[in-house]
Amino acid sequence: MDYATIAAALLHDILEDTLVTEQELVKGFGSEVVSLVKGLQNFQSISLTIIYNRAGRKLA
């Protein structure tokens, strides 16, 4: 794996769980890492929606 992928994996929740801004993240790690971090956030959101929908159907 390359640097950007590993950095994004380690930082995947930083924008949601801390006071670090997107601009600070770009300054520290570069725009490629930030793009990957934001993509991971979107993926997590979609995955959780699918899981909750499936759980709701099983309970109904």
Would you write up a description of this structure?
The protein has one domain (3-59). The chain is built from four helices and no strands. The chain has helices at 3-11, 14-17, 22-29, 31-59. It starts with a helix and ends with a helix. The mean pLDDT is 84.
List its traits.
mainly alpha
> How many beta-strand elements?
0
Helix share bin: over 70%
Rg is 15 Å
Number of domains: 1
H/E element sequence: HHHH
Question: Mean pLDDT, as a whole number?
Answer: 84
Query: Which range does the strand content fall in?
Result: under 5%
Query: How many H/I helical runs?
Result: 4
Q: Give the oligomeric state of the chains in this entry, treating copies of one chain as homo and distinct chains as hetero.
A: single chain
Shape: elongated
Look at the helices and sheets and give the structural class.
Answer: mainly alpha
Distance between the termini: 43 Å
Poorly predicted residue ranges:
none
> Tell me about the biggest sheet?
none
Please summarize what this structure is:
This protein is mainly alpha-helical and 60 residues long. It has helices at residues 3-11, 14-17, 22-29, 31-59. Helix 1 packs across helix 4 (31-59).
Set down the secondary structure blueprint.
Elements: H1 3-11, H2 14-17, H3 22-29, H4 31-59
Helix pairs in contact: 1-4, 3-4
